[in-house]
Structure formats: structure tokens, C-alpha cells
Amino acid sequence: MKRTGRREPDSRPALTALAYSDGLTIPVVGRRHRRARRLIVRVKSGQGAVVTMPWRSSIKAANEFVNRHRDWICSQWVATNHARLTIWREGAELLVHGQLTRIERISAGPSVYGRIGPVMCRVDGRDDDLKPRLEPALRMYARSWLMGRLRQHADRHGLKPGAVTVRNQRSRWGSCSSAGTISLNWRLIQAPEATADYVILHELTHLDHLDHSPAFWHALEGRCPDYRDHEQWLKSCESLPGMLPHAQP
């Protein structure tokens, strides 16, 4: 009888992606090495979590190892992602309307364009960093989109704000002055549309209640019943992949 040898394991096994937040996941890849003596995980830009595995280590053991180190992996993924976003290279990902969206570089004859979601503009074809041209274009789109949404909600609820501005605030998502001037943070373009709508409705409600009294929250809940869910997203979004940091002092 012919003797069959033991089947060699896959050198690059598929591991379970790590659930992160609001449906987002961190890719997890395995790399078996004959000299490895223990499981090791590293977080690499553009790859996700890379798990070095002893040659005979099981996929189950690797997945359990990843889950035990979930918090560390998530924190490293966020730090790596934010570091990548200081330069907007092709392939980097930003949140646009709550969805991770890849930055693209498109050649059209002699011209080169950068694109992120609904925004496309001409860029310097000699520079890998698309941010100097693409970020202003994204801000212009954010201003147009946010002001359009504010007008829709103001008309629907019979509210009349004063001046409206879209700026790059250091910490606030929005504000409403005693004169009825509403300011919105352009980075709301990164939030899910319903969450951006909540911030707009929050500030519009201040036109009737310039405080956070029970009357204010009652009025806001009538206009946005699930406002608590949106508040939670805004509190935790800084740790999401693809989220731009607030303006620095």
C-alpha cells in the first residue's frame, strides 16, 4: 500500500476579519512560518492585522488570539490610518457619508484627476499627495451639501436661521448663536447622512430653545426621534478608520 504523507497546511490561511464599528471590519491575514514558535500580530498599513503563525498552528487558535488582542489591534489600526491620512495618496481611504471611500488617481490624456466619492478635481500629476487639491474640493462639496440639507430642514419645520457658515472648527460639530447664526463643521460630510441631519436639526432647534433644557430635548426628539444613536456615533467617531482629525490649534 502506498503511504500518503501528512497534508501540508496552507501557508497563507484566511482568518476571520475583526468586527470594528458600525459594520466596519479590519482585514486579518495569516502567514505561517516554519521557524515561528508563537503567534504574533502586527498591524500594517494597507493590509490590516497580519498574524505570524507557527507552521502547524490552527486557524481556530489564530482567530482566538486575534480576538484576545482586539483592543490593541483596533488602536494600532486607527493610529496607522490617521498617519496615512496626513498625505492623501491613491488607495488611502476616507469616510464620506459614513462609508469608507478610496482615493483614486485618474489619468485622462495629459491631465490627472483625483477622486474621492462624489468629488473629482484636477491635481498635480507630479505629486503623489493629492490632498492640496482634493481636500479643498471636498470642503466645497461639503459646504454645498450641508447648506442644502439645512435649507431643506429649515423649510420643512418652518424655521428661519440667520447667517449660515460651514467652517473647520477645532472641536464642535455645530453651533447656533443668540442672533440665529448657525455654523457647521465641514467634516460632517464624513458622518452618515442621518447623523449630519441630526446635527443640523440640533442647531435649528436652538432657534426656538437657546439652551439644553428639557423643552429643547423634547422639541428635538419630535424632529429626530433617534437622536441618541447619532449622539453616540459623534462621540465615538474619532477612532473610526478614515476619520479626519479636527483642526489643530
Write the layout of secondary structure elements.
Layout (H helix, E strand, L loop, with lengths): L17 E4 L2 E3 L1 E6 L6 E5 L3 E7 L4 H10 L1 H15 L8 E4 L2 E10 L2 E6 L2 E4 L8 H26 L7 E4 L6 E3 L5 E4 L7 H13 L8 H10 L3 H10 L13
Parallel strand pairs: 3-5, 10-12
Antiparallel strand pairs: 1-2, 4-5, 6-7, 7-8, 8-9, 11-12
Briefly summarize what is shown:
The protein has 2 domains: 18-84, no CATH class; 93-239, 2-Layer Sandwich (Zincin-like).
Structure commentary:
- This protein is an alpha+beta fold.
- The protein folds into 2 domains: 18-84, no CATH class; 93-239, Metalloproteases ("zincins"), catalytic domain (Zincin-like).
- The protein is built from 6 helices and 12 strands.
- The chain has helices at 59-68, 70-84, 131-156, 193-205, 214-223, 227-236, and strands at residues 18-21, 24-26, 28-33, 40-44, 48-54, 93-96, 99-108, 111-116, 119-122, 164-167, 174-176, 182-185.
- Strand 7 and strand 8 form a beta hairpin.
- The mean pLDDT is 87.
